């Protein structure tokens, strides 16, 4: 069904018709006649209709994108500038089309033509579901589920968004979404000095060692390794754990990788008890020697502890 307002083809002449309308109150009265788009509408419940008002074209384009992805249709923007946007279905033979532009009558953007519904078949892959769109969908999920894996994200998109996403798209989208949620990993390294100082302030007699690599004074320091040992953990080990220590190293997931070295004991409930940890670039004689030297300085010799 083709639904079109008088303004759609008269984009230029509209200015002549509305030239005499300059009163803001008049504009507000006219705006009340038309439905306004609900920006809080959740995915799958987005409604579009003729004469619907939008605060700007960015909101309109997002609404059109979410609307079509939700119903499994592929479209394209064929007219896209600062004053108007037109979108059409990509499928051959489908007449679906929508047009939105500035309206002098209501002093905002309005849908002036809407040809619906889609007559093409539903699909489960959509070119409009690009990296930025996928990442935006994942932001809230990652905030509530920080350990979400790529497989979890794939299943979530299939279940909650009705689309199939390729592996490389999932990886790129999750990387961007995590950057939005957690901030840039690279920039977070700059906060390690402050982090260690805060730990020292709140945990007296504890040990926090940060080592950096700086070839010349002209270059900024880069992270090398970090050692963390809380005094409370040391006292707990001495007071209630068996006098045996296990050492382990594991790979860290993330953009910069690295390895986690740890020293653990066993408490009276047969549970693992962490004494100290360190983040290093890789396991080596040098990093293990550095870790054990720090550990020995914190817990002391066995003979010293009775």
UniProtKB/TrEMBL annotation:
Q: Which InterPro entries match?
A: MULE_transposase_dom (IPR018289), Transposase_MuDR (IPR004332)
Report the residue ranges that make up the Transposase MuDR plant domain in this protein.
45-111
Domain of life according to the entry: Eukaryota
Task: Name all MULE transposase domain ranges.
Answer: 245-294
One Pfam annotation reads: DBD_Tnp_Mut
Q: Where is the signal peptide?
A: none
What is the name listed in the Swiss-Prot or TrEMBL entry for this protein? Uncharacterized protein LOC116193651
**Annotated organism of origin:** Punica granatum (Pomegranate)
